[in-house]
Amino acid sequence: MRAAKRTASIAAFAAALAGPALLGICYAQATGQQQPQGQQPQGQQPAQGGQKNWKDRAEYDLYNSIAHEQDLHKRLDLLDQWTQKYPTTDFTDLRAQTYVATLGPLSAQDPSVRPKAIEAAKKVLATNPKDFTSLYWLAIDTPAQGGSSPSPDQIHDAETAGNGLLQQSETVFEASKKPAATSDADWAKAKNDVVALAHAALGWAANAKKDLPTAQKEFEAYLKANPKNANISYQLGQVVLQQQKPDLYPLALWSFARAAAYEGQGSIPAGNRPQVLAYFKKVYTQYHGSEEGADNLLSQAKESPLPPDGFKIVSAAETANKQAADLQSKISSDPSLAMWYSIQQSLTGDQGESFFTNNVKDAEIPGGANGVKTFTGTVISVEPTKVVLGVLDPTKPDATLTFDDPLPPDAVKVGDKIQFSGIGESFTKEPFMLTFKDAALPGVKTVKAPTKRPARRTRPR
Residue 40: pLDDT above 70? Predict the structure, then answer.
């Protein structure tokens, strides 16, 4: 998954950072004067007081062409011409900033330009560490260029860009600086998108350093600023899962569910979502023990990138521990259930066959041992000469009773809890089943079929 997916508003803001308006602003800040009206002498030096001058009219005209060229490739060519024809200029800073404003957006179209865009941004930041445009494009291009195996320098650049954007965001997006044509909502969203971008860069850097807690914190901060990015949700799930802290697993599962279920702007492409969904269900089942509740979690996560406070998913281990505690409580208070559990454990153990042959086969069970004369089970199915019961768990069959003669109609019904005993006949380990012959149910007698008498022969008259 990519480190970040720019939203529409980020793209629009990026377009503004690339446009002629920004270049005009750069020019005004760099010169502090009006555009020259006439040609200046070749080689003229800056006037006293630090005022900057163009080398000649041709240099100004070249820059003017750059400032009004909207095609990024053509603008880059013109910038290179400026550099070649005028290697020294009073407007070095302006040219460096213009390179950033051109190469940054161009790198989004052509990844091969990224190294130049990064170099241009770092060049500006070397003399102006607070340059917002350079920080912005460095935060985008560095993770994209570094990928999953970045160099230490790339990690450092991403941290520089992320921290710089966070420091500058309050100043850059002051209400007084909002353009008149921009709504308050769009201005606030632009700020949130820049803040999200900063956290994405910092999260990427932390993840690259294997600082998983910091990566988690940064990705969560990203999603609070910009909820509409399923790739970040997926990455959050990964960094949480890698920490191997059971108390954090519900956050990981929520994040994977969000990545799989979210369908709006910033979602994972529809063709890839089935793979993410399959992965979510795999890790959910591993943690919870079954897919029960997975669909409900998908529905919840589809509406929110982060879980509510106190969100919890019961783990398979917690379920098993609770079941074990409940069973232990039942066994402690029920001698017949304790004996049944002991027999089951012995039969399913390594010496199960030997135990059956020596202690169960053809023996009356329970036979009064420890004062226990009958077991108790819940009827799961009934046939005239066979009853299947759940003894340890009323919903899971583990005992089969067989009868030589049929039971009376309606003597035993599904769901009844009955007592029984019998003679051990056979068993299976998985799933566990102990079968009794000549079973006896207190208070219930089987019905013997009437013996047919031979037909009388009549004497011939």
Answer: no
